[in-house]
Amino acid sequence: MGLLTVIRKQKLKDKELRIIILGLDNSGKSTILNSILDKPNTDISPTLGFEIHSLQHKSHNLNFWDIGGQESIRTFWFNYFFDKFDYIFFVIDLITINSRFNEIYNEFIRLLENERFEQIKLIIILNKMDLFDNTDSESIKEEVIKKLELSRYLVKYEIVMVSGKEGKNIDLLLDKII
Ligand SMILES: Nc1nc2c(ncn2[C@@H]2O[C@H](COP(=O)(O)OP(=O)(O)OP(=O)(O)O)[C@@H](O)[C@H]2O)c(=O)[nH]1
Ligand SMILES: [Mg+2]
């Protein structure tokens, strides 16, 4: 293989980004992904395994891995780390953030403490903002950061509030990637 071919191949590879979408069942992972892909959110049902979808965005090829969040499937989340990901989308449902907080916290910490996590950029997505009265998004974000005890971890993250259903802030979310 000539040098030019190698360089060209490497350049193509540089433009591939892999994003894994994790979060509890019903948090809205597949709905958000549908919005990203500009697909209608009519027949949404729980993801039983995983689905991979790609999107060409700003000259990058984004590969999204949408993983089911039901408790029985969560143990398999970490199998997917064998492949290298560039980003993790961790989706939290704002409506059940208090009632399901222990579950959210446990899965989140399990993720942060995974040895393969270090290389991956974390984007925390607070979903279902359309159902939320409180419009002071900055204070909500701060509260979540505090509750998740993010300051205890040397981890870089972005946090964004969206409505997967209404497509709100989905452009902002994509801007966090590239
Ligand atoms: N109001 C509102 N409902 C949403 C939003 N996002 C998702 N939902 C609803 O929440 C439910 C679960 O959405 P899914 O996208 O299937 O959730 P999921 O995280 O993929 O669930 P699993 O695949 O089981 O892990 C569906 O009834 C969606 O219509 C949102 O932004 N606003
Ligand atoms: Mg799903």
Describe the structure in your own words.
31% of the residues lie in helices and 24% in strands. By secondary structure, it is an alpha/beta fold. The protein has a single domain (16-177), classed as 3-Layer(aba) Sandwich (Rossmann fold). Strand 2 (50-57) and strand 3 form a beta hairpin. The mean pLDDT is 90. It has a 6-stranded mixed sheet with strand order 2-3-1-4-5-6. It has 6 helices and 6 strands. Bound molecules: guanosine-5'-triphosphate and magnesium ion. Magnesium ion (MG) binds at residues 29-30, 46-47, 66, 68.
Features of the shown structure:
single chain; alpha/beta; globular; GTP binding; binds guanosine-5'-triphosphate; 6-stranded mixed sheet; binds magnesium ion; 178 residues; magnesium; Rossmann fold
Q: What percent of residues adopt helix (DSSP H or I)?
A: 25-40%
Q: What proportion of the residues form beta strands (DSSP E)?
A: 15-25%
Number of strands: 6
What is the end-to-end distance? 31 Å
Biggest β-sheet description:
6 strands, mixed
**What is the H level of CATH, i.e. the homologous superfamily?**
P-loop containing nucleotide triphosphate hydrolases
Low-confidence stretches: none
InterPro entries: ARL2/3, P-loop_NTPase, Small_GTP-bd, Small_GTPase_ARF/SAR
Binding site for GTP: 23-30, 69, 127-130
Keywords: GTP-binding, Magnesium, Metal-binding, Nucleotide-binding
Binding site for Mg(2+): 30, 47
